[in-house]
Amino acid sequence: MSTINQSGWRPQMNAVEGEAVATFTGNRALMLEEALIFEIGSLDTTGVDFAEAPQATSRLGGLERHRDIGLPGLSEPEAVRHYTRLSRQNYGIDLGFFPLGSCTMKHNPRLNERMARLPGFADIHPLQPIDTVQGALEVIDQLAHWLVTLTGMKAVAMSPKAGAHGELCGILAIKAALEARGEDRRVVLVPESAHGTNPATAAFAGFTVEDIPATPDGRVDVAALTARLGPDVAGVMITNPNTCGLFERDLKTISDAVHAAGGYVYCDGANFNAIVGKVRPGDLGVDAMHINLHKTFSTPHGGGGPGSGPVVLSEALAPFAPLPFVEQQDGRFVLVEEETAGEHHGSSFGRMVSFHGQMGMFTRALTYILSHGADGLKQVAEDAVLNANYVLRSMEDVLDAPFANSGPCMHEAIFSDRGLAEGFSTLDIAKGLIDEGFHPMTVYFPLVVHGAMLVEPTETESKAALDQFIGAFRSVAQRAKAGDAALKSAPHFAPRRRLDETQAARKPVLVWKEPAQAEAAE
Amino acid sequence: MRYLPLTQSDRQAMLAAVNAATIDDLFADVPESARLSGPVAGLPMHASELAVERHMSKLAAKNLSAGSAPFFLGCGAYKHHVPASVDHIIQRGEFLTAYTPYQPEIAQGTLQVMFEFQTQVARLLGTDVANASMYDGSTACWEAIGMARRITRRAKAILSGGLHPHYVSVANTMAKYTGDTLVTAVPELTAEPDTAKLIDLIDDDTSCVVVQYPDILGRIADLSDLAAACQAKKALLVAVVTEPVALGAIKSPGEMGADIVVGEGQSIGVGLQFGGPYVGLFGCKEKYVRQMPGRLTGETVDAEGKRGFVLTLSTREQHIRREKATSNICTSSVLCALAWSVHMTLLGEKGLRQLAALNHAGASAAADRLAQVPGVELVTPTFFNEFTLKLPKEARPVVRALADKGILAGVSLGRLYPGEEALENGLVVAVTETTTAEDVETLAAALQEVLA
């Protein structure tokens, strides 16, 4: 085990080519470089005071640790400074517009955070006696009630920990329902425009995945889909609104055909934000749909998680929902776990996670839902869709918009790289937007559009914010069309210039090593 | 509707700009029959911040929080003191409200934290590498079983009886669909873990042996012989750690030869939260890195040669490989990983060792005191901060009776293993630095009363 580099901060001369002034430290006023904890911490430093442990006989079975682990410590002021400095190299929705299509970056109300931190929610153990956690179970029950009511479904499985985990839950429910019918259907149909997680999920659950093409106007090819239905098809996985930003007009027709052929309909609910309060997926014949609480109901993304992906289920799939779940019995809430399941929930396909799901996310989502109410949630969908169409119509004369004539877009607008100057790509536009102070849109997704740019404004952006973004987006797009060479090397003003991803993948460096050790490993 | 900035006149101007007369023109593709005219029936309308706060606070007040009672629960979730600065840092908007770092030039904060987290986790678990976190310990565990299947091209996993029963349930659920065969057992109320039995079970079809360390009853087993036995049969040893603080006092599974080490990181930085969100830890030997699920951050340089970090090896992931992906995991638990990493940095080597020593000493004293209660027997001679008692009667109703007295006494094995009569008198008790001598005395006295 290596010791920790005690040499501390190593000044670097970071003269930037073409810039007149270099700094001794590499810092630039408020833009501060920050070393790794392994380079600035030490094994003897701690930021926590403990009482002296009483002398006691060790009962560790002779496995006492003798060697150092190699964990650097920082005092509290050093630690706060380290992480604060790092935070300043991050873009977040609190800083500005974050138009990531399909990711739904909306304002995160701080009331949600405050409520999630109430000791009655944050400081309770998942295995406490049920009578001591009645309020927590009531939160789950209330949120579940909102989710089934808003979607027009029969039941909801709360435990999946993220959207893709929810997909798995829905697919396993379908598999369990088929097994209960004694049928061995092996094929899941997935339209080309579906999220990449959809085929991965179906394959993971042992199904064979078959692609269904999209029509030129960006929707599922209904004829191709219905033609493929048969006794070997377990179901379809469809995204609505889809990844082209469009509403699948024919979803009800598709559902009816799938049901008539004995299959089930899984709907990827990642884009529920666009239709919440306006359309109930249950009315369109959906059997299972996950809801990314972080997207539609504003729980923070946190740099890539944690998420939360409850799955609403139709009457046909409800009996197969995973354990555990909350029920009301004789005026109190109970948690149905393995022990009681056999009595009246014998069809459940089992348990997906060790405890009851993302309770901290449930609290935040319920807080947000109650703040908006049924009227506010309807307004959410309307404003999100209005904002997206506003971006689409403000850009379509500058950038190719492949589905501009396919009807209104839902919550996201899609553009392609057609018409950019030779050698310029979607990535150059993305990096150009960084210099303008915006997080770029989603790029190269969905796969059905060449050089795709997927812009999702969400309902928490003002008209002024959109106008500023549109101005910048138009300017960068025009530079890419004109072949402005400076755009090729953007970003110029970010904490880092373009990073070498090929080197990172070819020779992965995934943990820090003492420089001497790292050299020896060369 | 304080979160919606558009004014009525903004909306009118924007509708005109997109050439729509009404907002419903933009929902024209939704079939008339499925369109809702007004707000969804049967749900309340929007509410003020004050009203919502009042509603949620009332619900919170119906729960007995761990900090307001003598508290002894463990079994996969532990109550530790989390320094105030941890919560401060994760609430900084730049961390809290960022997205997955797909644009590394403006996400170096998250990426550097992930790289530091990977290094801290790998060192703690004793593995060469670690990923940037999983959903939780239980999902990390079944992902490890899947990874062992891919590496060994065998599908029989042997699960120790000492593995958390919920982890076994999750693995069972998945195995029904992935084709793994699981050999499972329940623990026995004995001093010795089932290591020897596990060694006997390994054969040429075995993909991996999964063992918890310390196990569900709190026992600690030397894994060296098991690791050697696995290696001899070309099977992998998967170790599961649900209380990472223990590794401040005892050898890591990686040091004893485990190929994959997974863990539940909750006890450092995250808090109880009624079971989630938590943070799964996942480390392995370097040669298996391309079979490892989850996100990875790697070091690289930018166009000016400055060190920077990016997400890497994403060719294993579902958004590129679709149905050929390594797993369907599409996210991680980055904010919890940040909390974990900040807490670990505040502890450092020195603090973690002090914390571990405090936990062990407190648990030792508590075990001795509780074993003095008439009829109560200490089952586990070796343990870290969690041990198992055998009561003279069924533990479940005892725990409920103690809860009525405002004491959260521990986890009854009857709750974890319904229907297993041999275990129903077992009570698993956890003690951490948050437990006071007075708490232990209160529990001992109340236990004596309830058992009398």
TrEMBL record, chain A:
Domain Aminotransferase class V, chain residue ranges per copy: 183-302
Residues in Glycine dehydrogenase C-terminal domain copies: 382-481
This protein's GO CC annotations: cytosol; glycine cleavage complex
GO biological process, any: glycine decarboxylation via glycine cleavage system
Keyword field: Oxidoreductase, Pyridoxal phosphate
A UniProt-annotated Pfam family: GcvP2_C
The enzyme's E.C. designation: 1.4.4.2
Residue ranges the record marks as coiled coil: none
GO MF annotation list: glycine binding; glycine dehydrogenase (decarboxylating) activity; pyridoxal phosphate binding
Reactions the enzyme catalyzes: N(6)-[(R)-lipoyl]-L-lysyl-[glycine-cleavage complex H protein] + glycine + H(+) = N(6)-[(R)-S(8)-aminomethyldihydrolipoyl]-L-lysyl-[glycine-cleavage complex H protein] + CO2
Xref: InterPro entries: Aminotrans_V_dom (IPR000192), GDC-P_C (IPR049316), GDC_P (IPR020581), PyrdxlP-dep_Trfase (IPR015424), PyrdxlP-dep_Trfase_major (IPR015421), PyrdxlP-dep_Trfase_small (IPR015422)
Signal peptide: none
SUPFAM superfamilies: PLP-dependent transferases
EC category: oxidoreductase
Function: The glycine cleavage system catalyzes the degradation of glycine. The P protein binds the alpha-amino group of glycine through its pyridoxal phosphate cofactor; CO(2) is released and the remaining methylamine moiety is then transferred to the lipoamide cofactor of the H protein.
Protein name: glycine dehydrogenase (aminomethyl-transferring)
Organism: Sphingomonas suaedae
Taxonomic lineage: Bacteria, Pseudomonadati, Pseudomonadota, Alphaproteobacteria, Sphingomonadales
Automatic annotation (TrEMBL), chain B:
InterPro entries assigned: GcvPA (IPR023010), GDC-P_N (IPR049315), GDC_P (IPR020581), PyrdxlP-dep_Trfase (IPR015424), PyrdxlP-dep_Trfase_major (IPR015421), PyrdxlP-dep_Trfase_small (IPR015422)
Listed SUPFAM superfamilies: PLP-dependent transferases
Glycine cleavage system P-protein N-terminal domain: residues covered: 1-446
A Gene Ontology BP annotation from the UniProt entry: glycine decarboxylation via glycine cleavage system
Enzyme Commission numbers on file: 1.4.4.2
Family to which this protein belongs: Belongs to the GcvP family. N-terminal subunit subfamily.
Role this protein plays: The glycine cleavage system catalyzes the degradation of glycine. The P protein binds the alpha-amino group of glycine through its pyridoxal phosphate cofactor; CO(2) is released and the remaining methylamine moiety is then transferred to the lipoamide cofactor of the H protein.
Designated name of the protein: Probable glycine dehydrogenase (decarboxylating) subunit 1
Organismal lineage: Bacteria, Pseudomonadati, Pseudomonadota, Alphaproteobacteria, Sphingomonadales
Gene, per the UniProt record: gcvPA
